Every structure is written in structure tokens, then in C-alpha cells.
Amino acid sequence: MAPPSPPGVTYGEVPRTLNDIFYKVWPNILLVIVTCGIWACVWTYRTHGDLKRYKGDGLGEVAGLLIALFISPVIMFTVPYETQQMYERDGRKSPVSTLWGLWFLLPIIGNFIWYFKVQAALNDFWVSKGTQPAV
To answer: Most exposed residue of 5, 26, 57, 83, measured as fewest CB within 10 angstroms of its CB?
Structure first.
């Protein structure tokens, strides 16, 4: 595990604002439903890209998208894992862990619980790094 960074220190690129649709919970859920799941792949692509640009390591956009397309339950573990790594590098306890991926075992409602918690953890982390919160 990497040593914790001093408070306020960032590793890489941080999203400028959370007003982008990718960071808003309800529009994302609506888009996933309306597009029959295609938007979930777009969200995965963007989220893994944000994580890799910030951390400097991880799956990245293309690998995240390929996993989402071919073995989608794995994404339920990779996003919380990479989020947990960001928090730990920052010297903070992560609100999610790799085990959050087990929510996929609970049909439908498990996906919602997983998404609410993971997106909240990501948004809170980005805000702690100076990103403008969503309005």
C-alpha cells in the first residue's frame, strides 16, 4: 500500500465539477433504464477513466469498458476497489470496499444500493480534492 498523502494533495487530474451528468445519480439511473443498459457502459468507461487519470494506475477506460461488455459483474468489484485505493492513498477510510461488489448477487435492488453508495463515495472524494459540488 502506498503511503498516505498529506491532506489536500492530489495525484493526478481531478474532475472540475460534479455538474456533469456522469456524477448525478438519478439522471444516470434514468439513462441506464431508457438505453437498456448502454449508458451503464458509458458510465463505466468514464468512471474508470477518471480513476486512472487521478491515480495514475488502474484499468482505465478501454479495459473497464471491455470488462463491462463481456464479464459485467466484475465491474461491481473493480470500481469500489479503485475507489478504496484512492481513499487509502489519501490516508482516509474508504466508505466502500471490494466486497461491495457482492451486491450484484441481490437482483435489481442490489445494483441500486451498490450504485448509490459507490457514486456517493466517488463524488465525496472528488469534492474533497477541490471539485465543485453538483447543484
So the answer is: 26
